Amino acid sequence: MNELRTILGDVVTRLFTDLVTKDLLESAETGAWPEALWQAVEESGLTLPLVVESKGGAGGSWGDAFVVARAAGRHAVPLPLAETIVGAWLLSASGLDVPSGPLTIAPVHRDERLRLARAGSGWRLSGTAARVPWGRAAGHVVVVTEAEGRTMVALAARGAGQVKTDQNLAREPRDTLAFEDAPVVAAVPAGRGVPAQAVWLYGALVRAAQMAGGLDYLLRQASQYATERRQFGKPIGSFQVIQQNLAVLAGHTAAAGTAAANAFRAADRGDAAFEIAVAKVRVGEAAGIGASIAHQVHGAIGFTYEHALQFATRRLWSWRAEFGGEGEWAIALGRSVAERGADALWPHLTAR
């Protein structure tokens, strides 16, 4: 990590440590929008790391975005920060201005399609997108779809479609957005480097970073608890079985962080589909094992709502399935390897 990213990491960590309290997380789970937290995040420029400076952004890289997304996962930030980062990049890369306020992205399921059609001098959007993150809270939704034989990026305002509210296991909004010949704010051909599956790909990318951050939190909390909790007159961390479990958790946490960071580096180089698939598989596997170990170390107290551990584990369980679970991405990896042929696998891996 270079010096600038170290400074960015310090700023983000300090901001989230001060503002993302247990009371705020509990309030967000009742449906309250954390306005003060959003304003602090937006004013700090954390929503626009990939937008050029001339458009009001930080002019940074995907590597910078990784620092923000991982910290957001580590602190269970109850905001569509990752979605706003991706949405802002899609708009900026396609030559559109990025509106202020929270953004979300759609459609998030690989087999869903929203239809964009010309209507005079403008465009209209139709179709249904399910389980859209923070659909009710976002001021705008960024859509990537096909129209007239081209990949298009469109911006629709809140209120353009109907919203059916729902939530994931972490009680984060996951809403169904239904559009019926709805006007959009803008629609343009996708910019260079924005693939047709951009929402699916880069949604999985930022989820991998968030999960890597969540695993960081689990490791720190489990290690601390094992030091503080005493049984039979000594810390439970002195027992070999606990030490072994913590070592396994540390290994998975390190592997997840490495896989996610590598995918973000690949995104800066260009085509990152292979690395994103690897990261979503590896981080998803680590999330399942890591959450299990963390709860085992904490015992019964870790399952209570009063303990902060569940804010991280419920998000890990939810994020693991979003933008494709590891099984789906493993199939995609297998198909890509089969299409190239067995002899091409090793050269492909060493060339990445």
| Fraction in beta strands | 15-25%
**In total, how many domains does the architecture comprise?**
3
Q: Give the C-level CATH assignment of the largest domain.
A: Mainly Alpha
* Distance linking N and C termini: 20 Å
Low-confidence stretches: none
**Nearest-angstrom radius of gyration?**
21 Å
Q: What is the annotated CATH architecture of the largest domain?
A: Up-down Bundle
Overview of the molecule:
This protein is of the alpha+beta class. It has 3 domains: 79 residues, no CATH class; 94 residues, Butyryl-CoA Dehydrogenase, subunit A, domain 2; 154 residues, Butyryl-CoA Dehydrogenase, subunit A, domain 3, CATH 1.20.140.10. It is 52% helix and 16% strand. The protein contains 11 helices and 10 strands. It has a 4-stranded mixed beta sheet with strand order 1-4-5-8, with helices on one face. Strand 2 and strand 3 form a beta hairpin. Helix 4 packs across helix 6, helix 6 runs parallel beside helix 8 and helix 7 runs antiparallel to helix 8. It is globular and about 80 Å long. The mean pLDDT is 95.
